Automatic annotation (TrEMBL):
This is Glycosyltransferase. Residues 14-170 form the Glycosyltransferase 2-like domain. Keywords: Transferase. Pfam families: Glycos_transf_2. GO terms for molecular function: transferase activity. The lineage of its organism: Bacteria, Bacillati, Actinomycetota, Actinomycetes, Propionibacteriales.
């Protein structure tokens, strides 16, 4: 980061120094701080917090104010509240973009403030902590006990800090305020600044600074018996483990550290189901690629946050958004450039409403800036997963998600499936492709995962004329609690029911995704099966974005993960108005998608009234702009439009855009806009691969310069006027 990037107010840096009986050090602290920061060209203020001193500290502070009227401010606390209270008082009064905490005893030299400043502005971190050099530190009993305590803290909290207890800390003001939002009282709060920062997902760096002997006054530790110090430290460690846990937390798992304090209900699993749930999460690395067993804590946290009220969820979204924006500005070249072009700084975007200050992000923007400008410089390639999709646009699109996003969306999906009435341990059928586009290793994991969750896949891309009776018999054999599938696949089920077919069991629910079910299809399924049909709205870039509950027609947005805007002519759409869907992903820190134009239209819901289900999650109305299409092949198969989207995403190097057009059974036209790496042999291989699905269908290939856009801003990948014959399916 460039120091000038943070210098957007009159004050760049606020230095906060708690003072308790420090009358002999105040003047020198003020003078040396001024000299060091003036020499470095850093506009600063020094806030001296008198923490109920019993000597002449307040008089010394007032004198320092008089000597440095533009740079020193004094705040008096009437009683001695301790270092932590003084810190919070100073941070609350700070006006600088960045805040530095320093002791007033001059053991941390004020000249070292610039070292922390340089480190914060050149390293990819949120927090810088000065670790005390052993050069001038006397090897006395205090030195030995400090090193011993540091070892204990590293062991207990899974860290490798050189000086965990240092209270010489610098961070952006909003981040430091978040870190200091402790739930418990600690005898030695400086011990837990780094612990709290890591628990809340912030990156912390250390830089070496001198630690000099106190020359004026006495430390409160000098008058404290060692036995009491150790007892207080032990008490602090126990409290810290309870509040912060061990190790750096996942940003969503860390919600319970920072989020509002609503009292949530548990997920409610007991007995055999709980054993299955625990086993499922514990074995995560075996059956879920990149997803760890710690995902269980995210799942449990999401079970609590869904019951937050709107104000609490808004607070939670704002907290997560601030961290995303600071991260994107510091580590993603594209966003740093865009924010600079629009005169924006991370502090300008602190709530979801502030997002309108940023321009929207198109698929073309992502494509033009992949890879290096969209990748965070903190990304880890081994923890990233490529997402390739044609979606409903007909244009192969590539982006990447990281482990953090995969884990959160995994936990969110499991929670949202439960809204249908399905529970872990219940049978489930997915009318879905199970392994299309997967590697052999991923296929093994997918099948193991399905076995553990009692999930059976019936390939959605292999339904043929006359195959609906076979589908019905398979469903009757399994008797699933939940039938989950592409809308096109469920359309086949509706056709079966419409012609008089019946199933000898009643599922609890049906879940539709990928496309929007028509109202007729929904009614046919609900009437024929006696089960409620739920809808999932999602995209390959994010997985599930919003799900229906059992109490209404609107979709609950996964507010913990996404900020969803519905925009009409650039403004937020009013309830009932149709607008463009724009999404900010709060999870993906490797390739952030902020104000991403997904290409759909939706009706804005009225969120002033809570849903009858009791969840505080915001809601989305009817989704539009996604239509169903089926292609009838010469081999008798009916291929849904989503098949072609999945098929062509594996050939994004050959095909820039595609469109399938069918007006007769067994024959279709294929419009192709050639990609950058087009070769005739590779195209021939693609056609050979395609024929394994479409058989001897006549394929008329047309190479075109473009595929026209619809009013929604999308290119329809499949256009078909051929309709299934109810009597032959």
């Amino acid at each position: 980061m460039n120091p000038s990037d943070l210098a957007r107010t009159a004050i760049d840096l606020t230095v906060v120094a708690p003072c308790y009986n420090e009358e002999g050090n105040v003047a020198e602290l003020a003078r040396r701080t001024r000299d060091a920061l003036d020499a470095a060209g850093i506009a600063f203020e020094l806030i001296l917090v008198d923490d109920g001193s019993t000597d002449g500290t307040w008089a010394a502070i007032k004198e320092a104010e008089a000597d440095h009227p533009a740079q020193v401010r004094g705040i008096a606390q009437p009683i001695n509240g301790g270092m932590f209270a003084a810190w919070r008082t100073g941070v609350a009064a700070a006006t600088g973009n960045v805040v530095c905490l320093i002791d007033a005893d001059l053991q941390n030299p004020p000249e070292a403030i610039t070292r922390l400043w340089d480190e914060l502005h050149t390293k990819n971190v949120h927090v810088v902590q000065g670790f005390r050099s052993s050069i001038e530190w006397d090897r006395d009993a205090r030195f030995v006990s400090s090193r011993g305590l540091n070892l204990v803290l590293n062991t207990m909290f899974g860290d490798r800090a050189r000086d965990n207890k240092s209270g010489f800390v610098m961070a952006p003001r909003s981040i430091l305020a978040d870190i200091l939002d402790f739930k418990h009282h600690y005898n030695y709060p400086q011990t837990f600044v780094r612990v709290a920062a890591r628990a809340k997902g912030y990156a912390v760096a250390e830089t070496e600074t001198l630690f000099q002997p106190r020359r004026v006054g006495t430390s409160f530790l000098d008058a404290t018996p060692p036995v009491k110090v150790y007892a207080d430290v032990l008490t602090d460690v126990v409290r810290g483990l309870g509040e912060f846990g061990r190790g750096r937390r996942h940003p969503v798992e860390a919600m319970h550290v920072t989020a509002p304090r609503s009292e949530p209900p548990a997920h409610g699993y007991r007995g055999a189901r709980k054993i299955l749930l625990d086993t499922y999460f514990a074995s995560m690395p075996m059956h879920a690629w990149l997803i760890r067993s710690q995902t269980k804590s995210i799942y449990e946290t999401l079970h609590r946050t869904q019951w937050f009220d709107r104000d609490e969820l808004h607070e939670l979204q704002s907290w997560r958004l601030q961290r995303l924006i600071w991260h994107a500005y510091a580590h993603v070249p594209y966003y740093r450039r865009v924010m600079g072009e629009h005169g924006l700084h991370p502090r300008d975007i602190s709530t979801p409403e502030d997002l309108t200050k940023l321009p929207m992000l198109s698929k073309a923007d992502v494509g033009a800036n992949l890879y290096m400008d969209m990748f965070a410089d903190t990304h880890r390639k081994r923890e990233m997963h490529k997402i390739a999709t044609s979606g409903s646009t007909g244009q192969p699109f590539v982006t990447y998600v990281d482990r953090q996003q995969l884990e959160i969306r995994f936990a969110s999906t499991l929670r949202s499936l439960e809204w249908t009435g399905w529970r872990v341990g219940d049978k489930q059928v997915r009318l879905w492709h199970q392994t299309l586009g997967m590697s052999p290793t991923q296929i093994v994991r997918e099948r193991l995962d399905a076995t553990m969750l009692r999930r059976t896949f019936i390939p959605a891309f292999e339904l043929t004329d006359g195959g609906l009776d076979s589908l019905a018999r398979r469903l009757e054999e399994i008797k699933p609690v939940l039938i989950d599938g592409y809308a096109e696949s469920l359309n086949f089920l509706a056709l079966y029911l419409q012609r008089g077919g019946r199933l000898n069991f009643q599922p609890r629910a049906v879940l539709s995704s990928a496309q929007m079910l028509t109202s007729d299809t929904r009614r046919q399924i609900e009437d024929g099966l006696g089960a409620k049909v739920f809808d999932k709205y999602g995209a390959r870039e994010f997985s599930g974005i919003a799900y229906q509950c059992d109490q209404g027609d609107d979709h609950h947005i996964l507010d913990e993960s996404y900020i969803v805007e519905i925009l009409k002519e650039g403004r937020p759409a009013l309830p009932g108005e149709l607008g463009e869907v724009v999404i900010t992903d709060l999870n993906n820190f490797s390739v952030p998608l902020i104000r991403y134009r997904i290409g759909d239209l939706a009706v804005a819901a009225d969120n002033s009234q809570a849903c009858e289900c009791g969840r505080g999650l915001s809601r989305l109305g009817q989704i539009q702009g996604r239509t169903q299409a089926l292609v009838h092949c010469a081999n008798g198969r009916w291929l849904p439009g989503t098949f072609f989207a999945h098929f062509f995403k594996e050939y994004d190097h050959l095909v820039q855009f595609f469109q399938v057009v069918q007006h007769e059974h067994g024959t279709f036209a294929l419009k192709i806009v050639q990609g950058r790496h087009w070769t005739t042999p590779a195209w021939d291989d693609l056609l050979t691969d395609l024929r394994t699905y479409v058989g001897d269908s006549q394929i008329d290939v047309h190479f075109v310069d473009e595929v026209p856009l619809l009013a929604t801003g999308k290119r329809t990948p499949v256009v078909s006027t051929v309709r299934p014959d109810f009597q032959t399916l």
